[in-house]
Specification:
Transcription Regulator spoIIAA; Rossmann fold; 17% strand; four-stranded mixed β-sheet; alpha/beta; 31% helix
């Protein structure tokens, strides 16, 4: 099949350094993950509408769309346009995971929560005309997925025109879930309270591959990189000899543990 994976535009798609430019320039991690899990018998085209136009005339056999709440009006408009052309649309992401009935007004199928382990099944169901209205996969026990096609993790960071500098960065998600249940946050509901993570070797292999592609800076897309403190200590110790600069999110009580010194050490020895 010919598959189109689409990340809808954030708002007005104006390019330039503004409050949303960082979010817009980060590659759509969910789509990169699904592309890497797609068997080689299929063709995959990733379109990030923040940087390129969607070609609605392309002969896709199916379209997959992701989107947060701020993107969802555009996601639904894109889905409606493809369905007018007879293309099956599967939609996923945080917003539709919480509101699948709303999403079914614009898509043929909704994949809730984390799609990794059932993605190939969804593709088979599209191919055999057995697509379900809603898929409710279980949370994966491990994030060490077998990839069918390596997808580049590296992207160019947008910089002001007056700054003659090109920064190559890479995005890697190391773990999902958070043991807390903060009232303002959807992570626990979406990814669960049990922290799932990649093996240390899996992470360091991804870092080495991205460095070989020219990455000089890393964004670890975890919601709480120190959620599992023992794992975090092992992770930072493994990152120290790789000499990288990195950015991530964590909870403030990281300062109460010697883990913060390992985190600093994992970056201060960068070249």
């Amino acid at each position: 099949m010919n598959i189109g994976l689409i990340n809808p535009a954030w708002g007005d798609r104006r390019r330039g350094v503004n409050s949303t430019s960082l979010y817009r320039c980060i590659p759509p991690q969910a789509l990169l993950q699904l592309a890497s899990l797609t068997p080689l018998s299929h063709e995959v085209d990733i379109v990030d509408e923040n940087w390129s136009e969607i070609d609605f005339t392309r002969p896709y056999d199916m379209v997959g769309i992701t989107g947060t709440t701020v993107q969802i009006p555009r996601a639904y408009a894109v889905a409606d346009e493809f369905r007018k052309r007879g293309v099956p649309v599967v939609i996923g992401g945080p917003h539709v995971s919480f509101l699948p009935r709303e999403a079914l007004g614009h898509a043929d199928s909704v994949v809730r929560w984390e799609a990794d382990e059932i993605w190939t099944r969804v593709l088979d169901d599209v191919r055999t005309n057995r697509l379900k209205k809603v898929y409710n996969p279980k949370f994966p026990k491990s994030l060490d997925f077998t990839v069918h096609r390596p997808v580049s993790l590296v992207f160019r960071v947008e910089t002001p025109s007056w700054l003659p500098l090109e920064i190559k960065a890479a995005t890697i998600q190391i773990q999902r879930g958070c043991p807390h249940n903060c009232e303002f946050c959807s992570v626990t509901t979406f990814n669960g309270r049990r922290v799932k993570h990649k093996s240390i070797g899996y992470v360091t292999d991804e870092v080495k591959r991205a460095k070989a592609e020219g990455a000089r800076f890393f964004l670890f897309l975890d919601d709480n990189i120190a959620a599992d403190k023992e794992y975090a200590k092992e992770l930072f110790e493994a990152l120290i000899p790789l000499h990288i600069r990195w950015l991530s999110q964590t909870e403030i009580n990281i300062a109460d543990d010697d883990i913060i010194y390992l985190a600093v050490g994992a970056s201060e020895n960068c070249l």
